[in-house]
From TrEMBL:
This is RHD domain-containing protein. InterPro entries: Ankyrin_rpt, Ankyrin_rpt-contain_sf, Ig-like_fold, Ig_E-set, IPT_dom, IPT_NFkappaB, NFkB/Dor, p53-like_TF_DNA-bd_sf. It comes from Drosophila willistoni. Keywords: ANK repeat. GO terms for molecular function: DNA-binding transcription activator activity, RNA polymerase II-specific; lncRNA binding; RNA polymerase II cis-regulatory region sequence-specific DNA binding; signaling receptor inhibitor activity. The gene is Dwil\GK14061. It comes from the Eukaryota.
Length: 929
DNA sequence: CGGGAAAACTA
DNA sequence: TTAGTTTTCCC
């Protein structure tokens, strides 16, 4: 006899064999209950009446076992004076279990109910004549309760179609059979044909009776068995093995007709149980239904193949419970995506959750889907997700789009329901374009009336421009420069791509055009035809206004004495016009953002303003959004206006109402040419790359968050100090943010810049107090951490607040005795040693360039030779093998071909990387000689 | 009942 | 230690 501690009764209880209850919720204290299921708890004498485990009648200590068919010992042997099973016949009628009215004929009923087909194996010859079919599945989700929670009533396991009224319960039907039978229900695992360690209990007189549960059916009562009032007890982890073993053992004993198990069998059972217990799904179970007939001598014979219910999921678990979005931080976002969105959710598992955005058409078909971006660490305590919205499928839509958001749990493809609405808002660029198009039709009409529309095409470029262009353009296109002098081609020229390219980049002469020197202006300006033409356009506010201004210009130019009054007039026109516009766009905003870009008109406007000394008017004019002309140019991707505007005095650091500078806008919209226009050359006012918008981000921060290497590179090249700016939302600097992006490319870029900066971004702490390395350790992958650890002079240890296990072990094992107080100093010394030994990545001392490296550099510098080498290295992936042998090894995963790698080598590699690769290349191919 | 949360446990 | 889970407790 053994003993165990009964948790219910807080005392030791004796029992016969190890397989007896250890769970604490079945009090198997009867000496004779050896292989009984907990249903046979003593003290529940009356229970036997209702929940007798017919399958496992208690037996004498040395029972007589027989071979199949299963054998039932005389019920008189039941312990504790139980009522013999003669009473089973009507027990379900008397109590909570009942049987439905007998079906007219089992086979007829079949069609009326939602049947499942018998289990697998139906492919094989079914040895059983009778068939079990599930008439009502159990509910899909149900809260599993721990033993300690099983007080009072807690709702029963209902049928899948249960309503408040009528309620349904799991139900099976026995077909193709006549005569009395027993239908058994027990709890099984879902991915294994083996019992589950959880308990399927029925509440009876303050007591939970465990599975299996048996119901009698017969001709008279019908062949439908309904299992009412069941609950599922979640076995605590520590008891899982014991419970599972007990169940398996009980089952085996039953199958073997209660023959005593051999030592070997017990051993095998142990092993098997150990295996199963290890990865049993604790949040999912299914019901197993079996049917038996009880023959003479209580011989139990299986009469139908077992069937299994659909899985029942634990409602309270994050792995199987319901998914629900409780709240969104905001209901809208930009079509460009990357907006921060916070979802409050019901319990989710960070390793097993996705946020899906999708759009349906009128027919309910999915026309678009995308997933929000977030990391495991962005899931806050199972109840909130901080993510970045995905970009909408069409970034150029001009209206708001309603989409839906839902949570998805990949493991079981569960979705949250109902989906929440989310509205994508079109980009500013599109909105303002649309607004301008509808509220003022300056665009084509205006140009038509003032330019090409006039008979003699009197509108011309400034003379200086005409002189400058041939030279400048010739670089790009010989023909155009030749054609330039001919007036008829002027229109063509000015609208040509080459011309735009030219003014987009740099042309000092062109910029002079905007200088307030009269000589720079249009020589013959507007002819009379212009005025005539303008009457036709009188209905158009913008073109009318422009025409008036141009006319004033014309007059003033020829008669300087009226200049002053003309100036005032123009100023008034300009200001009033803006006020009339919905969003206070000025003429300047309008000409820059015309749908059909009209350079001539735009420049002319600039010149006229310039002429009247109204530079300030132009350079300081902002619309209702606080956007300057520069903002608009970036928004609308009109890079060629940027330099002229700057020259005119527009402040590049001007921030709009969202605190975006024009550069912010350019980065957000990824306007590469605009960015270039800003960064190349020297604007009159120094660009301030540290300005932060309302999201707390500088342009560089935005580029990093959008994972735009090219943009980040341009910005950093323009001003390295930008990398040390901390954003104001979480205090992260560029390196922190690159860590979060987990982009090796960006990291390398920033670290390279760091080498030549005084500010130490490595030690900078964000709002949470982390340095980039520390941040990497808790948020990024190993590769990122490794990369960073290499560049930290002290390997980041001295400033660590938290050291993950792996690293800690290294430290512990490498430092021999570091005591509590002396640890830091010890380590520092040690690091100095390490640094001199193997810090080959950072070249602090200038070295002579090797011949190989020099040759390789020359080679890469030549486009043709670069391509040739790339092609050569691409054969059989030589480049990859080669790179793996060198300092480049750690980056190989970055590239798919030699071009990418060579590009890195040429533009971004460290000296060590370059040298080692040059060396390897030389050895391998000899190409460098 | 279902929901919420404290306490206990674990890596 | 901390942070994440599991189990118990409570309303």
């Amino acid at each position: 006899m053994n003993q165990y501690f009964d948790l219910d009764r807080r005392q030791n209880v004796s029992y016969l064999n190890d397989a007896s209850s250890t769970s604490g919720y079945s009090s198997a204290n009867s000496p004779t209950s050896t292989s009984m299921s907990p249903a046979h708890s003593p003290e529940s004498t009356t229970l036997q009446n209702e929940f007798a485990n017919l399958a496992l009648p208690p037996v004498e200590n040395s029972p007589q076992f027989m071979n199949l068919p299963y054998h039932q010992q005389p019920s008189q042997l039941m312990p504790n004076g139980n009522i013999p099973n003669a009473s089973f016949g009507n027990m379900y009628m008397d109590h909570q279990y009942y049987t439905s009215a007998p079906p007219p004929a089992a086979t007829v009923q079949q069609t009326a109910l939602n049947f499942q087909h018998p289990q697998p194996g139906s492919g094989m010859k079914n040895e059983f004549p009778a068939v079990l079919q599930i008439a009502e599945q159990p509910v899909e989700k149900f809260r599993f309760r721990y033993k300690s929670e099983m007080h009072g009533t807690h709702g029963s396991l209902n049928g899948a179609n249960s309503k408040r009224t009528p309620k349904t319960f799991p139900e099976v039907m026995l077909l193709n059979y006549t005569g009395p039978a027993v239908i058994r229900c027990s709890l099984f695992q879902t991915n294994l044909d083996s019992p589950h360690s959880h308990q399927l209990v029925v509440r009876k007189d303050e007591r939970d009776v465990c599975d299996p549960h048996d119901l009698h059916v017969s001709q008279e009562r019908g062949y439908v068995a309904q299992f009412i009032n069941m609950g599922i007890i979640h076995t605590a982890k520590k008891y899982i093995f014991d419970e599972l073993l007990k169940k398996k053992q009980d089952r085996l004993v039953f199958q073997m007709n209660r023959r005593e198990l051999s030592t070997k069998q017990i051993q095998e059972l142990h092993q098997e149980t150990e295996r199963e217990a290890k990865d049993m799904n604790l949040n999912q179970v299914r019901l197993c239904f079996e049917a038996f007939k009880i023959g003479e001598n209580n011989t139990w014979t299986q009469i139908a193949a077992p069937v299994f219910s659909n899985p029942i999921n634990n409602r309270k678990s994050a792995q199987t419970g319901e998914l629900r979005i409780v709240r969104l931080s905001k209901p809208t976002g930009s079509v460009t995506g990357n907006d921060e969105l916070i979802l409050l959710v019901e319990k989710v598992s960070k390793k097993n959750i996705k946020v899906r955005f999708f759009e349906e058409n009128e027919d309910g078909e999915i026309v678009w889907e995308a997933f929000a971006k977030f990391r495991e660490s962005d899931v806050h305590h199972q109840y909130a997700i901080v993510c970045q919205t995905p970009a909408y499928r069409d970034k150029d839509v001009d209206h708001e789009v309603n989409v839906s958001i839902e949570l998805i749990r990949p493991s079981d493809d569960e979705r949250s329901f109902p989906p929440l609405g989310f509205r994508y808002k079109p980009r500013d660029a599109i909105v303002s374009r649309k607004r301008r198009r509808t509220c003022s039709t300056a665009t084509t009409n205006s140009s038509g009336s003032s330019g090409t529309g006039s008979a003699n095409n009197s509108m011309e470029l400034p003379i200086t421009l005409a002189q400058v262009q041939p030279m400048a353009i010739s670089h790009h296109d010989q023909t155009i420069s030749q054609e330039f002098g001919k007036e008829s081609h002027l229109e063509e020229l000015i609208n040509s791509v080459q011309f735009r390219k030219l003014i987009e980049t740099d042309s000092e002469e062109l910029e002079k055009m905007c200088d307030p020197v009269l000589g720079m202006l249009v020589q013959d300006g507007f002819g009379k035809s212009e005025i005539i033409a303008s009457t036709a356009a009188a209905l158009e506010p913008t073109s009318k206004c422009l025409d008036a201004i141009f006319r004033a210009f014309e007059t003033a130019r020829h008669s300087p004495q009226v200049s002053e009054s003309a100036r005032k007039y123009v100023e008034e026109l300009f200001t009033n016009h803006a006020l009339k516009n919905d969003n206070h766009d000025t003429l300047l905003h309008e000409v820059i953002s015309q749908k059909q870009d009209n350079l001539k008109l735009a420049f002319k406007t600039l010149q006229v303003l310039n002429f009247f000394g109204l530079r300030d008017l132009a350079s300081t004019s902002i619309n209702a959004d606080g956007d300057s002309g520069l903002h608009i140019a970036c928004q609308q991707d009109r890079p060629h206006y940027i330099r002229p505007l700057l020259k005119l005095g527009c402040n590049p650091n001007q921030q709009n109402h969202a605190n975006d500078t024009a550069l912010h806008v350019a980065v957000k919209e990824e306007r590469m040419s605009c960015i270039d226009s800003f960064l190349n050359g020297v604007p009159p006012v120094k660009l301030d790359l540290t300005l932060k918008n309302d999201d707390g981000l500088s342009p560089l921060h935005m580029a990093i968050r959008q994972n735009k290497y090219d943009i980040a590179k341009k910005l950093i090249n323009h001003d390295r100090s930008a990398i040390s700016v901390a954003n104001t939302t979480d205090g992260n600097n560029a390196l922190h943010m690159a860590v979060l992006e987990q982009s090796v490319e960006l990291l390398v870029l920033i670290l390279d810049a760091q080498n030549s900066t005084l500010t130490d971004i490595l030690q900078a702490r964000n709002a949470a107090g982390y340095t980039p390395l520390e941040l990497a350790r808790c948020k990024a992958n190993g590769r990122v951490v490794q990369l960073l650890e290499k560049v930290y002079p002290d390997r980041g240890e001295t400033t660590m607040t938290w050291i993950p296990f792996k690293v800690k072990e290294e430290i512990d094992s490498s430092s021999d005795d570091s005591s509590d107080t002396g640890g830091l100093e010890m380590k520092t010394e040690e690091d100095v040693v390490i640094k001199t030994e193997n810090d080959d990545d950072i070249d602090t001392t200038p070295q002579m360039e090797t011949a190989n490296a020099r040759n390789l550099k020359i080679l890469l510098n030549n486009k043709t030779r670069f391509d040739k080498l790339a092609a050569q290295l691409n054969q059989q992936d030589i480049w990859r093998q080669l790179a793996k042998k060198t300092e480049m090894e750690k980056f190989v995963f970055l590239w798919s071909s030699a071009e990418g790698m060579l590009d890195y080598l040429y533009h971004k590699s460290s000296r060590a990387e370059f040298e080692s690769f040059a060396q390897a290349l030389h050895e391998q191919l000899g190409v460098l000689t």
